[in-house]
Each structure stands twice: as C-alpha cells, then as structure tokens.
Write a structure and sequence with these properties.
With about 190 residues, the chain is an alpha/beta fold. It has helices spanning about 15-25, 30-40, 45-55, 65-70, 75-100, 135-145, 150-155, 160-165, 175-190; strands spanning about 5-10, 30, 60, 60-65, 105-110, 125-130, 170-175. Strands 2-5-1-6-7 form a five-stranded parallel sheet, sandwiched between helices. Helix 2 packs across helix 5 (about 75-100) and helix 3 packs antiparallel against helix 5 (about 75-100).
Length: about 190
C-alpha cells in the first residue's frame, strides 16, 4: 500500500500552494478540508448534525456553514461535537481514496488540523509547512478579506509550529516560492526512496 504522508501547517502558511506543487509532480493529494465540505452535504451527515445542533443550522436543506461556525467557533465543547461527527467520516473516505492510489509510492493528505484531530497517528511521515506569523496574517487578510483579529482568533484554535515541529519529519519554510519548491523536491526524492 502507498505510504501516507501528512501535509500540515497553520493558517496562512501556504500548505495549499505546497500541496498543489506536490500534485504537479504527480503525487496524489487528498485535500481533507475540501472533502470534509462535500461529506457535510451528505444526507446522513446532515441528519447527524441536526440531531446535535438542531435545525437552526440548516438553510435550504443544507448546512449553513456560517450558522454552524457561529455555534462552534469560539466554543471548544461544541467544536468537539462537530469534529466527532465529521472526522470519522473523513477518515473512512480517505482510506477508500488511498486504496484507489495503491500504485503510488506515497500519497499526501493535506489538512490544517492533522495534529489537533489526532490523524497524524495514521501517517507514515509528516511534512510541516511554516512561515513567519506576520506573513501568515497578511496572507489570510488578503486572501479572505478578514480582520487581523479574526485571523488571530483562528490561529488560537490551531497548534503552534513549536508544538508541531517535534512530531514532523520534514519542514518546508514557505517564504520564497522557489526555496519552498526546492525543499519540496528534496522531500519528494527522499520519500520516493523510502
């Protein structure tokens, strides 16, 4: 079976850009956040979310991400309940996806909350994407059109790079694109030879 390599990094670190680079090199990439959003639209998951959070988080027979976010965002207990619904579904979906890519030497699972969710335990290797805090804040403000306070609030829900580094096998510092890509190339070479 293909080795599972986790790719993670805090908000604004540029992990999606790095994931796209790996994909451009022929590496199968699973974007957990994208898949989780699709899974949240399935009827079985909508039913579970209504059971836990009530029908006020539903709009036009779909989950209103804004309403659900307002319930869970600054409430760790409610966020834990949501994660208990979503994470097992994503894990099953991911394992099915891995089976479809068995011929690859390794696959990449890109997720912001690899450590926070505990799914790092399912990875053979882990790549951490880092960037200085100020640069990350600037990137998210320009990308999402949100305030500095909103970015910092999101950052507080994620582990720090200092917490993630001891559990990571590789680190890509994503300040200059070319440098980050050169590091990624070295990592690809190492992983293909494992």
């Amino acid at each position: 079976m293909a080795k599972i390599v986790g790719l993670t990094g805090g908000i604004g670190s540029g992990k999606s850009t790095i994931a796209a680079y790996f994909e451009s090199k022929g590496i199968p990439v699973y974007i957990a956040d994208t898949e989780a959003k699709k899974i949240m639209d399935s009827q079985s998951v909508i039913g579970k979310i209504i059971d836990v959070f009530g029908s006020e988080v539903i709009e036009n027979n779909k989950i209103s991400r804004a309403k659900l976010a307002s319930v869970v965002f600054n409430n760790p207990k409610e966020l834990k309940k949501l994660n208990a619904i979503i994470h097992p579904e994503v894990k099953l979906h991911f394992m099915d996806w891995v089976k479809k890519h068995q011929a690859a030497s390794f696959v990449l699972k890109e997720t912001a909350i690899l450590f926070e969710s505990g799914s790092y335990k399912d990875c053979d290797k882990i790549i951490l994407v880092t960037a200085p805090k100020e640069l990350r804040i600037e990137r998210v403000i320009s990308r999402d059109g949100v305030s500095r306070e909103e970015v910092e609030a999101r950052m507080k829900n994620q582990w720090t790079d200092e917490q993630k580094m001891p559990l990571s096998d590789f680190v890509i510092t994503n300040i200059a694109t070319e440098d980050a890509q050169n590091t990624a190339d070295k990592i690809i070479s190492t992983l293909r030879n494992l």
